[in-house]
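Quality-control log, excerpt.
Job 1 of 2 completed; input and output follow.
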Amino acid sequence: MSVWFAIPSACYSQAKINLPKWKAKGYKVAVYLTTGKPYGKINADLIQTGAYFGWPKTSNLIAKFVIKTIPDCTIVIAGGDDMFPLPTDPDAGIIEKQFIQHFKGTMGVMQPTGDLWMNRVAERICGSPWLGKQFIRVAYKGMGPFWPEYNHFYADEELKVVTAKSKLLWQREDLTHYHNHWTRNHQQSPIHMEQAQQSWETDGQLFVARRKLHWPGW
């Protein structure tokens, strides 16, 4: 069995630093690289390339690619280049067994909430969720774990809401995915985030509209 950290990679400088931290804790790493963008050598076990469709839809693509390509994969973790597990947390295999025991299989979502950044935002969203293989297969009628119409924001918040309502969410404050967000250390916004920020308002409007309709397609 194996657990995969699988993300659209947008920032090579962060990926070069943080992806080895996942591998050091026993995780496999898969990245989705946008066709035509320059990348250096990236420390990944599996690479998928293609057009970029926004974080939610592209995260769905790489998650589904992993479970289709790797037969022994049980769990895929979504997130970004700027996230990594704490060295003090258990290795991937230990948490994997706990996940499967808790859900009695892979139909569930687990979110580490130990990162206290930004007033415990990790408790309010599923920004780096552990996604069970069966959940990936059936979520949103087979489209994947995130609603694909969002461009960048709010898909992780919707995932938290719908899985909590469906009793498919396990939040664990004893585990931490550290989010080394650019605002955390007062750094300059990366170019890809400047582009993503343009969709904040429209993504927010979509979230409000879907909430009023009780999350159609879920």
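Job 2 of 2 completed; input and output follow.
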Amino acid sequence: MAISKDERRFLRYWEEQRKGSRLGYYTMYIIIWFFTALLCLFFVFNNFSQFGRTSIYVLYLIGAMALTIAITATHLTWWRNEKRFKKIINREIEEGKD
């Protein structure tokens, strides 16, 4: 089975992401996910909370939750993309042997 256009595009994208360090990838995406999660959580907590005003402890909680979400999402994305990359490459190697 030949590589599809989507797989070829993914391989190029992922090879480009892997060229840099893993630390660089994690840093960039953790920052992006952190601010995205922070905004979403801040919106949710302020609209659905029982508090009249947001206390400092709630802000700490929101920050900790956003950081946890960011680290988890970044790691799962790296893991999933790496798994998909290896699966495509291994499939092509096996087909080359036949």
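Post-run check on job 2. The chain is about 85% helix and 0% strand.
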